[in-house]
Design a protein that fits this description.
The protein has 139 residues and is mainly beta. A hairpin with a 2-residue loop joins strand 7 and strand 8. The radius of gyration is 15 Å and the shape is elongated.
């Protein structure tokens, strides 16, 4: 299956914490970073997710926020540091491509935000992704 979701990061499930409706699934990405996804309990069962399962973490580029450094005191658990490879700016929006350990990530943010953060090729940035914005896929 081909998807329009740009951010597709391979990993291995390290833990599953079930809940009545939702579950949290921790994934170790290929680059060694830990990611937490909040998905339905039904999806955990349908995908047969358990520690050791191979998955791809899927995140739409519009669901990735950026910061100049790791942010303390915020509920967003997924913070992936990287380096900016490219910034493509339009009249209102900017597409920012990052290299993170083990892969790449794209964020689409406002042009003003990209300028305010001083994002240019070679600068550092941290991708912030809410757990509820991560989908998981198995092959």
């Amino acid at each position: 299956m081909n998807l329009s979701i740009r951010n597709q990061m391979p990993g291995i499930v390290t833990s599953v914490t079930p809940g009545e409706v939702m579950a949290t699934v921790k994934v170790r990405l290929a680059g060694g970073q830990d990611l937490t996804a909040a998905i339905t309990a039904e999806a955990v069962d349908e995908l047969d997710l358990a520690p050791g399962a191979s998955v791809s973490a899927l995140v739409k580029s519009t669901e990735v926020a950026l910061a100049r450094a790791v942010v303390d005191g915020v509920s967003i658990r997924n913070q992936l540091p990287g380096a900016v490879d490219d910034v493509t700016t339009g009249a209102a929006m900017a597409s920012v491509k990052l290299t993170i350990a083990g892969g790449a990530l794209t964020a689409v943010i406002t042009k003003d935000a990209a300028e305010d953060l001083g994002l240019v090729a070679g600068s550092s940035a941290v991708a912030l992704i809410k757990s509820t914005e991560i989908s998981l896929a198995t092959s």
